[in-house]
Hints:
This protein is an alpha+beta fold. Helices cover 19% and strands 27% of the residues. It is built from 10 helices and 28 strands. The protein has a 6-stranded mixed β-sheet with strand order 19-28-27-26-22-25. A 5-stranded mixed β-sheet has the order 11-14-16-9-17, with no helix packed on it. A 5-stranded antiparallel β-sheet has the order 15-10-12-13-18, with no helix packed on it.
Amino acid sequence: MAEVIRMPLLSDTMTEGKIITWNKKVGDKVKSDDVLADVETDKATMEVTGYVDGTLLFIGVPAGEAAKINQIIAIVGKEGEDYKPLLDGDMNNLKTAAAETKEATPAPAATNQQTAKVSLPAGAKEIRMPLLSDTMTEGKIVSWNKKVGDLVKSDDVLADVETDKATMEVVGYEEGTLLYIGVEAGSAAKINEIIAIVGKPGTDVSAYVAAEKSGANSVTPTASVTIGSAETAAVATVEPATETNTQTSSDQRIKASPLAKKLAADKGIDLTKVNGSGDNGRITKKDIDNYTPAAAQAVTNTVAPAAKAFAPAFLPTGQEGFTDVPLTQMRKVIARRLGESKFTAPHFYLTMEINMDNAMTSRVAMNEVSPVKISFNDMIIKASAMALRLHPDVNSSWMGDFIRQNKHIHIGSALALPEGLIVPVIRFADQKSLSQIAADAKELYGKAKDKKLQPNEFSGNTFTISNLGMMDIEEFTAIINPPDSAILAVGAIKEKVVKKGEGFGVISIMKLTLSCDHRSVDGAVGAAFLQTLKKFLENPITMLV
C-alpha cells in the first residue's frame, strides 16, 4: 500500500519548510533510508527521509516552494499503484493548520465509545511525546527502534526524535510488550500525544485507541492518575543520542540518522569508519561528534563553509531592475518574533559612556594567566551578570498578565550567522569566573556556527547582550528578545579627547545602550542598573572579589 510522506517538524519554531532540492524524481526507486529532499527551516537546512521502500509516485511540492507542517510532500508505493485516493480530502486543505491535516483518512469509527470514556486496560501504560524545549509544540519521530510485539525494558530506547538542532532518544521507562505505535516514522506528534502503549502480551488496546482518536476520551484516561501513582501514564523522557557499535546492514547500506549523515558530510567523515552507537549499530550525532581518530583530526575540526552571500548584479547606467530574494525560514521567525516585540513592548532606551582604560589594562594582565583568552564581550557578560544580582527587576520576564522575577541569571549573547541571528546562552553567568565564561562562550559560538547547539543551549536567557563593537559600530539600539525585559547594545571602543588638568588627553570610551520594556522596567531602574554596570567595567578588579 502506498505511503504518504509529510513535511516533518524540524524546528521548535517552524511553521513551514522550503524544499531546496529533490534528490529523487517521480518513478525512481527509493529505499527506507534514502534522503528524498533537502528542506530549509528557520534554523538550518535539513534532510527529509521517507523511511519506506518503493517507487516515488508523487511529488506534491516543487523545489523552491514551501510546505506547511504535516502537508503531503510525496507518496511512495508500488510501481503503477493508484495513489490519488490518498490525496482526497487532503489536497483541499494543504494550506490549513497542521492539526487539520494530520491524517489523510478518517479515524476508525468508534460510535460505541462516543458517549462513554474508555479506560486503558489494566497493566497497560501510555508513552507520550515529551517536551524537548520550552517552545516546542511537536516532535518528529525519525525512527522506531522497536516494533509492535517486541519486549521492551525500562531503559530501552524506543524511538529517535529529531529537532532542528539534535537527534534525541526517547526512553519510555516502562517494561512489557510494545502493544501499539501511534505515530509512524517520519510523522510528527504533538507534545503529550500518545506515541506508544506498553503492557502485557496479548492485551487488546484497540477500543481505547479508537476512543482516543474519536475524541470520546476527552478527559484524562482512568489509567492516568496523580504523579507517583502506579497507574500513572508514562511521559517519555529524552536523552542526547548515546553510543553502541556500528555495522553496515545486510545490503551494505550504512545505518545513520539524517543529522549524522549531514554532519559527516560537512566534516568530510567516512561513515564506514565510524563506530555507531544506536540500536543495530545505527550511527548517531554523538558518534560523529566523538569521532576523532588521529588521521581524521584535521577533518573533524573543519567548520562547514558559510552560505554564499547574495551579490546583486548592477545594470548599466540608465536601466532599472531588481531581484526578489526569498525569505529563509530563520529570517521569517526573526521578523515575526522581533516584530511582535517591537510593536507590543513599549521600548525606551538609555545610553551611557564607559571609560575602558582600566578594562583594557586589566584584560592584558588577565590573559597572561588565563587558560583561555578573555574578550571584552566576556567582561561585559560578567559585569552584566553581577549588576543583575543587584538589580533583579532588570532580570525579569514579561509574561502577559504577570512579571516573573528570575532567581537565576542566564545571559544570551547574540551571534550573527549567514542565515540570521541565534542567541547562545551562558547559564549561571554570575556564578562563573571570567575564564569560565570565556571558555563557555567559545564552545557555544563554535557549536552555533556548526549548527550543533542543543535546545537548552539557545533558550532560557533572562537577559541578552548584542555586541556590534567588533564591526566598528559606535552606538545602536537593539530590539528586546522576548520574554526578556531588557537587552544591552554594545558599541566599539573609541578614543576620545577630554580635558585633563590644564591640558587635554585621550581616553578609551565604549557606549552602552540599554533597551527596556517599560511594562516591567522603569526608567530609574534601568538607569541604576547601568550605573552599577559602569562601576564594574571601569574598575574590573571589583568583579574578582
